[in-house]
Amino acid sequence: MTTHIEAEDELVLKRQPFVPSLAVFHCRWCLPETDLVRSFLPPEVAECSTFITLNCTARMEAEFAIKAFSEGFDGVLVLGCEIGECHFRTGNHQAVKRLALLKKMMSLCGVYPARLGFFWISPYDEDAIRKNVGSMVHGISSVGPFKYGKTWIRPRPR
After folding, report:
1. What pLDDT, in 10s, does the model give residues 12-63?
2. In a domain, 63, yes or no
3. Which of 23, 53, 88, 139 has its C-alpha lying 20 to 30 A from 158's C-alpha?
4. 3-class DSSP state for residue 65?
5. Is 99 a residue whose pLDDT tops 70?
6. Residue 14 forms part of a structural domain
7. Radius of gyration of the chain (CA)
8. How many domains does the chain have?
9. Is 154 left (phi over 0), alpha (psi -120 to 50) or beta?
């Protein structure tokens, strides 16, 4: 049985297309300008997203992503240097391991892994960046909003 408030929420969602909000973490060495990173996102997504500059993606802790989800963001995007091109030599190797583990843990907890995206990119290949970011935004849009404590858990197979 749905309540009056839940019925109103469903009507609002049906009227307006879903625009995901992202917490975007980016390396200050390969993508130092937040405005450049903002230009890679669709304009409507960039408006409701937050951009955080990291000294290196190795500083991206799992807690940052979990905190972003608890604050109501629909997805977390991490953009870092190409593998082997890190200013700190092995920073992106550390981040790959940490974020891959987080993605597996999210899946085990029932959170769609498409909500966490991490890409190791060349700042000169803007088309590839837009393609990767666009595919992530599309994936989050197809999953829907992240409703903490309500419908964010994937239904279990029977």
Report:
1. 555 578 899 999 999 999 999 999 999 999 999 999 999 999 999 999 999 9
2. yes
3. 139
4. helix
5. yes
6. no
7. 16
8. 1
9. beta
Name the token pair of 9: 């929420």
Is-contact 99 66, C-beta < 8 A? no
Q: Which H or E run contains 116?
A: strand 116-121
CA distance linking residue 88 with residue 56, whole number of Å: 8
pLDDT in tens, 70-95: 898 999 999 999 998 888 988 889 99
**CATH code: domain of residue 32:** 3.40.50
In a domain, 3, yes or no: no
Instruction: For residue 101, tell me if it sits in a domain.
Output: yes
Q: Alpha helices, DSSP H only, in 87-125? A: 91-109
pLDDT at 147: 78
Q: Average model confidence (pLDDT) for the chain?
A: 86
Strands 50-54 and 75-81, by their bridges, are: unpaired
Q: What are phi and psi of 24, to 5 degrees?
A: -105, 120
Is the Cβ–Cβ distance between 31 and 3 less than 8 Å? no
Position 123 scores a pLDDT of: 87
- Residue 101: give the domain boundaries: 20-47+55-143
Cβ atoms of residues 54 and 25 within 8 Å: yes
